[in-house]
Amino acid sequence: MKLSENEQRLLTELIGRTVEGPGAFSLRKDGESAVLRSGEKITVTKKADRPGINVVIADGATESVHVPVLITKTGHQERVYNTFIVGNNCDVQIIAGCGIHNPGEETSAHDGVHEIIVGENSRVVYTEKHIGEGGRGKRVMNPQTKVKVGANSSIIMNMAQIGGIDDAYRQTEIELAEKASVKISERVMTDGEQRTESKVIINMYGDGASSLIESRSVAKGRSHQVIETMINAYARSKGHVECNSLLMDEGKVKSIPGLNALSPEAELTHEAAIGKIAGEQLIKLMSLGLSEQEAQEAILAGFMK
Amino acid sequence: MLKVDKVRYLVENGAETREILKGLTLEFPDNQITAITGRNGGGKTTLAHILMGIKQPTAGKVLLDGKDITNLSISERGKLGISYAFQHPPRFQGITVWDMLRYANPEITRESACELLFTVGLEPGKYLQREVNKALSGGETKRIELATVFARRNRVLILDEPEAGVDLWSFGHLVKAIKKYAAEHDVITIIISHSKELLNIADQVVIICDGEIMPDWESCNLRCAPI
Ligand SMILES: Nc1ncnc2c1ncn2[C@@H]1O[C@H](COP(=O)(O)OP(=O)(O)O)[C@@H](O)[C@H]1O
Ligand SMILES: [Mg+2]
User: Fold this and answer.
1) Is A275 touching B (CB cutoff 8 A)?
2) CA-CA 20 to 30 A from A162: which of A270, B59, B153, B191?
3) Nearest-angstrom CA–CA distance, B63 and A153
């Protein structure tokens, strides 16, 4: 399997490395499985009944698995189901991502349905990037991610949609057992006529569970975002939501941070802010000799980091 | 030399117009420290903003080395080497102390960055990679702000109440550091302050009260006497 230069570049932007190198790896390209490779304690196989893969991570694994998706054909549309089963006492990284380079006029779309089931006493870092680029044809992504986190386990989820996606409906749902924790960092950038809706729901079922959502988004051009977060606390648990959105040009953002305490011992807090780049931030950087444009870029780059 | 010439600054508040600066004329000589003091609300920060280009004077001029810079933008003044350490520095997201120092001086080395942090009383190992965000205390942001302006190649250095939030022990170091910086660089230093120690290192002290320069504290007290 050989990737074009353009595909290599997109892949590197997506997951920070190429196919070569160690570790479990699955590359899906234009609907085909282009690379399928297991690791030491990570087994990657194709699903028998529908498009997608099963990733089984054995107890005690301390390694990473990369599962990128590339679409480079205009008009290619797919729905893919990936299942990750993480054992006990693991310390693993799952690096996912989808890059659409749509060269033509037709809509290309990837709907990734991810299910992650984490055992006990495990640490998981899940990183997912979505990038769209190319010609006039639309790039559409509707990622759905469902996660179950077992007792004493934690998952860190870094999810970024950093540009070029015309239409997205992102759904993330997390379930936490006793003393399980999740930290979600979400970054969304839209421009032009793009639309993105993101919904994150966390259900804390176990005592001692904790969750943190840190969502940051930038709406440029005439784009429109709806960012919805909800933490449901069914047990003695803690949760915090932080949603910050920056408006530029004619961008619009609707932010709905929700907290739902269903246990008298729940502790839930939230902060939400929508607004333009603070004038004093721009002034500070300009007083150091940056132009207004440079100052704006520096602030945005930091914000989306 | 930096000069403000008959600078007035008016704000309109509905039907009412307030004169925040009432025609100030003031010279800041090369290689000298000028301290500006006076009661809160007197117009000191407003004057600093006019020097930096953050606010435009309603009337009057700002001259640097005889050149009228009144219409230059903030960025242009920044490029000329005018620096302003804010009274209340803004917080950012995702921008580290190291990033700030690099914006202040793209050529800065790690060594000199660490040295600067040390000078303002911050442990470099702990702070260089910290984000300049709202998790920092007021005193920490003030010190980072100072390090940031010290990092630049300055023609004019304006410090707005640098003592705020800095504990006594570090404050002694800070006074020395400012004095040393002023002595070792070809710079016009302007310190807005209420601190005796900082007024003591100044070559000239200017009292601004109610938008005007006062000859002494007594006149200021008379002017601003509580009703
Ligand atoms: N944009 C503004 N609108 C109305 N009043 C202002 C504005 N900016 C400053 N002021 C007022 O100008 C006065 C001087 O403020 P400032 O320059 O911050 O004083 P100082 O730094 O000496 O404490 C204060 O009374 C302040 O409330
Ligand atoms: Mg002030």
Assistant:
1) no
2) A270
3) 64
Q: Is residue A288 part of a domain?
A: no
Instruction: Please give the number of the atom of ligand 1 that sits closest to the Cα of B48.
Output: 17
Residue B110 backbone phi and psi in degrees, to 5:
-60, -40
Return per-residue pLDDT of chain B as tens, 227 residues: 999 999 999 999 888 999 999 999 999 999 999 999 999 999 999 999 999 999 999 999 999 999 999 999 999 999 999 999 999 999 999 999 999 999 999 999 999 999 999 988 899 999 999 999 999 998 899 999 999 999 999 999 999 999 988 777 678 888 999 999 999 999 999 999 999 999 999 999 999 999 999 988 888 777 765 54
**With an 8 Å Cβ cutoff, is B14 touching chain A?**
no
> Is residue A305 assigned to a domain?
no
Domain extent for A272:
5-278
Q: Does A293 lie at the interface with B, CB-CB under 8 angstroms? A: no
Which CATH number is B2-223's, of 3.40.30.10, 3.10.450.50, 3.40.50.300, 3.40.190.10? 3.40.50.300
Q: Is residue A294 part of a domain?
A: no
Query: Is A177 domain-assigned?
Result: yes
Tell me the chain A residues in contact with residue B89 when contact means C-beta distances shorter than 8 Å: 284
Strands (E), chain A: 24-29, 32-37, 42-46, 53-57, 64-71, 77-86, 91-102, 108-118, 123-134, 139-141, 144-149, 154-163, 167-176, 181-190, 195-204, 210-219, 224-233, 238-247, 252-261, 267-275
pTM: 0.89
Number of domains chain A is built from = 1
Q: Which ligand is nearest to the CA of B58?
A: 1
What ranges do the domains of chain B cover? 2-223
Q: In A, which residues are within 8 Å of B103 by CB distance?
A: 285, 288, 290, 298
